[in-house]
Amino acid sequence: MKTTRVKAFGTESPEADLKQLNIDRREVTSKDVSIDILFCGVCHSDLHFARNDWGMTQYPVVPGHEIVGRVTNVGAGVSKYKKGDLVAVGCLVDSCKTCENCKADLEQYCPSWVGTYGGYDKHLDTNTHGGYSESIVVDEAFVLRVPENLDPAGIAPVLCAGITTWSPLRYWNVGKESKVAVVGLGGLGHMAIKLAAALGAHVTLFSRSTNKIKDAKELGAHEVIISTEEAQMEKAAGRFDVIIDTVPYVHDLNPYVGTLGTNGTLVVVGYLGPLDPMLVTVPLIMGRKSVAGSLIGGIAETQELLDFCGKHNITSDIELIKIQDINKAYERMLKSDVKYRFVIDMKSLKN
User: Is a pLDDT exceeding 90 seen at residue 351?
Assistant: First the structure.
């Protein structure tokens, strides 16, 4: 298969900084869309994958799965997109398309789903490479349309942080009568607040810091509960229908379970790993409460989210950076020193 060599930023080992690399992109096949990348969001997953924190990275790796750009070319069989369209690519670039999950528009749960980076590229028989690059070629079934009224830089994190919180809000039927709480005010948490508020829910932030109160209310939260204040937590007992837990590190879920109402659900979207301390089952049994998990969303659901964002003029709050500053951005992310998501201006790579 013919390929085109493009500039990218990636790393060749877990200890090495990201640097400029050259990678190959395939020429468009019949159902492919070629995209000039304008902006790419920076996700915690990018950092974890680059540093092999999950023990599965194959090098070299080019991260980035929050991609927004313009179509530059389409294959002969493409019907949904044309040159010049504003489009996006999220965390998935392929799946088996035949399993029950794929048939149900749940490609994120396909046993054979292919990640935008770190997956298997069946066309080139190598690893997939992500959006820290000049361009990308993707099957049209995994390309998304971006409303033109939205800031393309601000919409990039919606492709991961946004859909990660939107999917559980939709699955658990959040609407005008819902009482929703969000744990953690970072990239995921600030999107959860915006989206839940736009759905009409009463939204509460759980935070360990009083410094987050002003920001949370500006984002759409109706109130903030300081989770380290015992009296406030006791007063919140039995209140919430859904809690979206966005914290990306091990923490105690038990205090939040106690604030769920009967049939309420706490959904973990930020942390991968064993719980410590262990989950106490008494409040679950006594109130038919649930602790669940959720992973991004399928293509149809992600398009639904983008359309919803277009209707309500919702984007992520971002800090725009140059690709040459990505290693500094990673270090700042580890210190939670960003409000609320870094986005790379890809002009910095092309120039």
Answer: no
179/241 Cα distance (integer angstroms)? 5
Whole-number Å distance between alpha carbons of 178 and 31: 41
Cβ neighbours for 263, distance < 8 A, ≥ 6 positions apart = 241, 287, 288, 289
Task: Give the bridge partners for 342, in sequence order.
Answer: 319
Nearest-angstrom CA–CA distance, 211 and 59: 40
| Strands 67-74, 32-41: pairing kind | antiparallel
In this structure, what token pair is assigned to residue 335?
């210190």
User: What is the rounded distance in angstroms from the CA atom of residue 209 to the CA atom of residue 220?
Assistant: 17
Buried-exposed string 275-289: b where 16+ CB fall within 10 A, e elsewhere? eeeeeeeebeeebeb
Q: Which residues contact 71 (CB under 8 A, 6 or more apart)?
A: 33, 34, 35, 36, 81, 82, 83, 84, 85, 87
pLDDT tens profile 191-200: 999 999 999 9
